[in-house]
Write a structure and sequence with these properties.
This protein is mostly helical and about 270 residues long. It has helices at about 1-10, 10-15, 15-30, 40-60, 75-95, 105-110, 115-140, 150-175, 180-195, 205-210, 215-230, 235-260, 265. The chain contains 13 helices and no strands.
Length: about 270
């Protein structure tokens, strides 16, 4: 039973490719429907956030990128971590209402509901991958490109799997526990400030406290992006954390979703 459900979860994008493709396309372009700004919001929203954080931390608090990153401007250092985080946070925030919003479809139609967590993760990552790609193009023109950059898609894919497992888990549990909607939104905010996105980990002087950050997978993801892009290096410590964490999250979250999906119709 375990391996049967897990196999169905793993093959979802392939088995239901047409449905997955149509839902993803509809949700992605639906973000800009009837919007005057249209595609402009795709770039404007993260840019505004980055400008605000850069002003507060670079200008007011005079925060600088760690010495090992050389003369890297803090805004660049921050953007490399912020854009992948933004995709992760948006996927988690929207996961709470993922199944609740599709209740009529789930309860009235024979529908492979496991497609929804995949789509719910793919759309935010596709959206913010565009911004991250443009940032990499800019940095490449500044002479920062190295062979290590070829690992970025692999790191991004692992982060995608890590997120998808959490989205599947949260969206399934929110069907039965509606209070999770508020808990998840609050948790994402707390998680953000416990992850060195808008500040370098070097600001924490106590080494024992810094080591506790290794328990936070997003710290390892973001640190890997910065090391690969700015230094052309890969930390084996962080790599050894994100690979099993991503696979466990993806498999466990997906299996649990598949295990309880038949009860969704009764509750919704």
């Amino acid at each position: 039973m375990f391996f049967t459900l897990l196999r169905q979860w793993l093959l979802t994008p392939v088995t239901h490719y047409r449905l997955f493709h149509n839902f993803t396309r509809q949700d992605f372009f639906g973000q800009f429907t009837a919007s005057i700004g249209g595609w402009l919001w795709l770039f404007l929203t993260p840019v505004v956030h980055i400008i605000i954080y850069a002003f507060v931390f670079s200008y007011i608090f005079q925060v600088r990128a760690p010495e090992e990153f050389g003369q890297t401007r803090f805004v660049v250092f921050m953007m490399i971590g912020y854009l992948p985080w933004f995709a992760f946070a948006e996927a988690l925030s929207k996961s709470t209402g993922l199944l609740l919003e599709k209740a009529p479809l789930i309860t009235k139609v024979m529908f492979p509901v496991q497609v929804l967590p995949v789509v719910g993760t793919a759309v935010p990552y596709l959206t913010h991958a565009i911004g991250f790609g443009l940032l990499l193009v800019y940095l490449a023109t500044q002479g920062l490109f190295s062979a290590a950059w070829l690992l970025i898609p692999a790191i991004f894919a692992l982060q995608f799997l890590f997120t998808m497992g959490l989205v599947a888990l949260i969206s399934a549990l929110c069907v039965f526990l509606r209070d999770l909607q508020q808990i998840v939104l609050l948790s994402v905010t707390i998680w953000f400030f416990l992850t060195p996105v808008i500040y370098p980990i070097s600001m924490i002087r106590d080494e024992s406290v810094r080591n506790l950050f290794l328990l936070n997978p997003m710290h390892s993801f973001i640190n890997l992006y910065r090391e690969i892009v700015l230094l052309g290096e890969v930390s084996l410590t962080h790599l050894s954390i994100i690979v099993p964490t991503a696979l466990v999250s993806y498999c466990v979250g997906g299996w649990l979703f598949m295990r309880i999906r038949h009860a969704f119709g009764d509750v919704l």
